[in-house]
Amino acid sequence: MEVLERPTFGSESSQRIYEYVERHGTVKRHVLLDLVSLPASEFEDELEQLKNDGYLEEDGGTLSVAFEFGAVDRYESGDVEFTIRPAYQSDFEGLVETIRDVTAEETYVVAESIAEQLLYEETVTRHNTVKSRIFFVATVDGEVVGWTHLDLSQVDQIQEIAQQTVGVSEEYQGHGIGSELLERGVEWAEANGYRKVYNSVPVVNDRALEFLTAHGWNTEAIRRDHYTIDGEPVDEVMMAYTF
Fold first, then answer.
1. Which CATH superfamily is 73-242 part of?
2. pLDDT at position 109
């Protein structure tokens, strides 16, 4: 299933099954059967149809939402080897920890809110009739050290606009990981028909603003006194990359 495709269902039962998995990230088949309260034969038929339609996938009895949104790429920078790939539910803890590491060093309010949203929902990828959310992660020796995130509305009027965040743990900055993550997100958005990507940054985060500017992003708007940081009003700079 493509992330841009609004999920549609042939029955209320299939919708119930999909929505439970989508909200929870992963769920065991036998647990899901008990939770959705369907006859076993109907559950099996609906589940198989969802899998055949590309909405759900199963690995060893564990169900998750099925997505095709990116390959695994490997890079070398000096003595650091890193991988950039789509994020999985198994990356949840490392992803939250990395975002919190970055936002502890730099003021990045949108990224902080993403971490809180992850913790609240306990789900990495979301895809429903209202919005979608995908992550790509950078890993070193299997550990998450960076991310880029795209928030994708399903509302028709803004469906061609995506919001992006990106960050790399301080220990691994300076190896081009952030640049590769940013480019991965932008390339995905362009390939999937988006016409603009936003990144909203407090004006006090000089490093982020310089980073985005160096990669061809432009200041599109400034929201005056949008944040309160350390008791003081702080402007938000809305950076945009237009295709």
1. Gcn5-related N-acetyltransferase (GNAT) (3.40.630.30)
2. 95
Q: Which tokens go with 225? A: 């006194």
H-type alpha helices, the chain? 12-24, 29-36, 40-52, 92-105, 109-121, 177-191, 206-214
Determine the pLDDT at residue 1: 58
Measured CA distances, 79 to 22, 82, 222 (Å): 39, 10, 40
Residue 7 is given by DSSP the state P
**Strands 161-168 vs 196-202: parallel, antiparallel or unpaired:** parallel
The CATH architecture assigned to 12-65 reads: Orthogonal Bundle (1.10)
Contact call for residues 151 and 133 (beta carbons, < 8 A):
yes
- Determine the Cα–Cα distance for residues 128 and 115; give it in Å rounded to an integer: 20
d(CA 202, CA 209): 9
pLDDT at 4 over 80: no
The amino acid that residue 164 corresponds to is Q
Decide if 111 contacts 151 (C-beta within 8 A): no
